[in-house]
Structures are given as structure tokens and as C-alpha cells.
Amino acid sequence: MKNIKLLMTSFLMLVMLLSSCSPETYSLDGQMNKSDIKFEITQDFVADPGGNTVIMKNTTPGVILTWDYVTGKSDKATETVKYAFKGNYTIKVTAVTGGGIVELDPVTITVTKDNLNYVNDPLWNLLSGGVGKSKTWYLDLNADGVSKYFMGPMYFYGTDNAWLEGGDNGCYGADCWNWSPEWKGNTWIAAQGDYGSMTFSLDGGPFLTTDHKMSPAYGKESGTYFLDINAKTLTTSNATILHPNENENCVVDWRSMKIMSLTENTLQVGVLRKGSCEGPATLVFNFISKQYSDNWVPAVVADPNPAIDLNGGTVDDLLSTTTTTTKTWSLSKDSPFNWSDLNGALLNNWNSVADYEAAGWTGYVASDQTNVVKNKISFSNDGKVSTVDSNGVTKSGTYATEAGTNIITFSGISPTFPIGSSWASVSTTEENQWKIVKTAKTGNVVTDIWFGKRDPSKSEYMVFHFVLN
């Protein structure tokens, strides 16, 4: 019995060994013969005597067909294209099958008459200048680092944002959001430079020519385009819109776009970002027309004056007088510094030292609070100002206020204070100025002031929060 068991065990081990040594084989479905793939391309001569309306229909189940119909591309099972201009159009058809890609025989159709009704629309005119004309566009960032209309060359939206004048304020689903960064403070979104030009034409056909000066791999292109005025989409063939190189490999399809907005002077188009590149999103590129760019004159725009509570008096009254001739203000131990936009809205939700610690990068911690409150500035109604910092260093000088702007200009003194162990510190602008951007009351008395230091590049202030002693 023991011998039988040993024999059986040896036999099973041999079978397992032979099985483990047998090569595994795999097979894909064989590539379909193109003669087995059926489709129909017909011209509707009832709709257009010239055959301008073309219907493409996939009649092969389990196969996806891609139609490249000169003015655009589609993979719909049934696609209807309306050619505005007469001419010969060669439609290329590609099949995606279980066995791979199959290139099918192209089909050439002839359109014998123009039907300019298909491009006689305000959106076509805004994009191209109209039938028989052309219009040139630039990415709104030039070699000098100037954006002439938008805040920068590129904005970010959710995947369900589209035509901004429709839907729920441009929202057509659940994933709707927007970030419109100012390029000066976010230069990482696009390199400074001359991006070249792109020209949309309706002179003899819907032609698109591009000159990618910042993208040598694209260079100069000549292709076609199609504007779907109902879906508010733009597709191109053999030419690609101007764009920064930073997102080159992160876009699903550079030749399939959403029109976000279109006016006489501006154009915004959106492409879908891949999920593998920080998550899916709509990358929106901002363009200005050549005419707008050529006639643009930089405007001198003064910073807005945030609405602040002066307690019924003037800035001088706020700073220096109540029932006394001098007021002393101490740097807040809870929220000593922040940033705000030009209207005084704080950019970080920091209300306590715990908020700074949670942020992780401010360098301000609870142990700094005892020293921070020792930083003080005193304003007197005779125009004198004095400071004492947390190290006991005192300074004095004079100040003047500017009516209507809430700007304070210092002379003979530049108020500076350390903020504990943080890398941040209190200081003034190169012009030795602060601007009051925000105030807050306790009861009927203004007890909190945020002095703003204007950033020389970004449209924002670094603000310092002082509390009335």
C-alpha cells in the first residue's frame, strides 16, 4: 500500500511539472478584412441640389468607424456634414475592430454648388470675419509678458463647463468650477514669448492656417475647420490651435474643442485634460484678434479702494484720534498676516494661530504669539509716527494720508516688524507706503485694521493685521 501511494504521488508531481513547463498561448481576434466592413456615404440632393449635405452611416455591428471628412472628424455611428463650399471632398474612413485598426478605401464626393447659408451665422462671422474674408488671432500673452485683455493666456474650468452664455452660467452638469489665474503671479502656466498666429478663413473654404512660433514641432500648418453653431464646438483637421507647450501631452484631443466664448475681439476655446494629469479638467485658452491687439493701448487703471469703515471720520481720525491725540496699534497675535485681492477680500481663511500651523508653510506657530504682540505702531494727530518692535528697537518719523485712496506714506521711517519665527515680516512698499484695505469694529469702535503692501507684480496685497491697544 505504501508503494502504491509513493507511485501515485510521483506520478502527480510529474504531471504538475510537465504542466508548469507547457507554454501558454494567447490569441487576438483576427483582423477583419476591409471588405467585411460595411458603411454608407450618401449625398442628400433634396436638402441641397449641389449635394452639400452628406450622411455617413456605419452599418457594421461591433466596429467603430472614424470619419475624417476634411473639415473635421467624428466617430458617431451616423454623422451628417454640411459642406458650404463646392469642390471635391475625400472622406477617409478608419475602422477600429477587435483585431486592430483597418484603413478602408476613401470615398470622394463632389459638391457642385456653394451653400453659404451653412456659414452665414454670427458665430462664423465672429470667428472668421465672414464669407470671403479671414481673421487672425493671437494667444493673449506676448513676448513682453503682457496679456492685453484677459488676466492671462489660460484659465481652468470643470469638465461640465462649456459655452459660458448658456446653461447655468456656463454649467451643464455636476463638475463645474473655474480658476482664472493672473499670469504675472502664475508664470508656470505658460512660458513668456511670441506664440505666433492662427487665421480662420472663409475665402473659398473653411481654411485654418497656423504659425506655431513657440512650438517648432508644429511649425506652420494648413488645414480646415468646422464650427458647430448649435453644439458650440470647434473641430480642426491638419492644423492645431496655438497653445503653450506645458500641457502638450496632457490633452485628450487638441483638434476637438468647446467654444467657451466668442466676441468681435476675443475667443476662448477649451480642450479636455487627461485624468492622469492632475485630474480631468477643461483647459481654456484665451485669444485676442489681431485687430484688437494692433489697436490696444495700455490703460492706466488705478487700484480700487475697498470700502472700509472709518467710523464716521477720516483716515487720520481712524489712525490717531478718538478722545486722545495718539492711538497705538499692536500686531495681532491670532492672525498677523495674510494676503488679499485688490478689493480687500482675504485670500486665506486664517483666523487663529492653529490655522497657520495647519497650513504648514507659514512658519507662524503658537510660541510666537507672546512676542508678536510686542510689535506696535503709534500714530499721532500731528503727523508723527513711532514704532517699537518685539526686540525693543524703536523708530520715529512722520506720515501723511491720501484722501480717497486710504494710502499712508511714511517719511523718515519705514515700519518693519518680525513676525516671530516665521519667514514672513511686516514691511512697506518701495514707495514706503501702506494702504488700509480692511477694518473691523468691536461695538461702535474700529478696533482692527489691515494695512496692505501692494505686490509689484500680482494684483494683490500682503496684509498686516493690527489691533487697537
Separation of termini?
A: 101 Å
Give average pLDDT, whole number.
90
Give the neighbour order of strands across the main sheet.
9-12-13-14-15-16-17-18
Major sheet description = 8 strands, antiparallel, barrel
Please mark out the parts with pLDDT under 50 across 5 or more consecutive residues, or reply none. 1-28
| Shape estimate | elongated
What is the C-alpha radius of gyration, as a whole number of Å? 34 Å
Q: Compute the number of structural domains.
A: 3
Please give the CATH class of the largest domain. Mainly Beta
Q: Count of helical segments?
A: 6
Summarize the helices and strands and which ones pair or pack.
Elements: H1 2-21, E1 39-43, E2 53-58, E3 64-68, E4 73-74, E5 78-82, E6 87-97, E7 100-103, E8 107-111, H2 122-128, E9 134-139, E10 154-157, E11 178-179, E12 196-201, E13 207-212, E14 220-228, E15 233-237, E16 256-262, E17 266-273, E18 281-289, H3 290-295, H4 315-320, E19 326-331, E20 337-341, H5 353-359, H6 369-372, E21 376-380, E22 384-388, E23 394-402, E24 407-411, E25 417-418, E26 425-426, E27 433-442, E28 445-454, E29 460-468
Antiparallel strand pairs: 1-2, 2-5, 3-4, 3-6, 6-7, 6-8, 9-12, 9-18, 10-11, 10-18, 12-13, 13-14, 14-15, 15-16, 16-17, 17-18, 19-21, 19-29, 20-29, 21-22, 22-23, 23-24, 24-27, 25-26, 27-28, 28-29
Protein name: PKD domain-containing protein
Signal peptide: 1-21
Organism: Flavobacterium saccharophilum
